[in-house]
Amino acid sequence: MNKALVSTIAFGAGMVAYKYAQKSDLLSKQGLKKIQRKAKLMF
After folding, report:
1. Distance between CA 41 and CA 43 in Å, rounded?
2. Does the pTM of the predicted model rise above 0.70?
């Protein structure tokens, strides 16, 4: 698969998960920081 396509899909999925987490209030700020670090490592 195209690397740009993979990153676009991953980013889109991340945004959906982030918005869902904000609405449901499941994740703490620490949890969001961990996810952001993982996302940066992926790219």
Report:
1. 5
2. no
Count of the separate structural domains present in the chain: 1
User: Can you give the length of the chain in residues?
Assistant: 43
- Which residues span the domain enclosing 30? 3-42
> Mean pLDDT over residues 1-23, rounded?
83
Q: What's the CA gap between 15 and 17, in Å, rounded?
A: 5
Residue 31, C-beta contacts closer than 8 angstroms, at least 6 positions apart: 21
User: Which residue bears the tokens 């996810």?
Assistant: 35
Query: Which has the closest alpha carbon to 36: 12, 18, 19, 16?
Result: 18
